[in-house]
Amino acid sequence: MDYSEKVMDHFANPRNCRKMEDANGVGTVGNPTCGDLMTIYIKVNDDDVIEDISFQTFGCGAAIATSSMITEIAVGKTVEEALKISRNDVAEELDGLPPVKMHCSNLAADGLQAAIENYRENNQ
Ligand code: FES
Ligand code: FES
């Protein structure tokens, strides 16, 4: 199985892999295909911008790489923009994933959406 250099880099040096105590949105999703779990934490400021984002993942290397990558894609975006980040965007930014690993990028995109939903519920 071939992983791109970007995937290997994000796996070996994950960005923003930590729990966030003062998050105002938290989303946990499970992957029914493999049983892996991912939690995404976001801190959204008064301008609706994601000023901090982090993750914790119980999962494979591709799940770690995709969650690391999505934190880099989403930081600095508005909630509205971040909602548009698709499963494919994550894989593309990593220069692709092997086909059997595409479901791992779903976990990152779904986790971010769940965190945003949670943020919106908290702020109604
Ligand atoms: Fe997810 Fe192996 S199936 S870590
Ligand atoms: Fe489960 Fe990658 S094998 S998320």
Automatic annotation (TrEMBL):
InterPro entries: NIF_FeS_clus_asmbl_NifU-like, NIF_FeS_clus_asmbl_NifU_N. GO terms for biological process: iron-sulfur cluster assembly. One of its GO terms (molecular function) is iron ion binding. Pfam families: NifU_N (PF01592). Residues 3-123 form the NIF system FeS cluster assembly NifU N-terminal domain. NCBIfam families: NifU_clost. This is Iron-sulfur cluster assembly scaffold protein IscU.
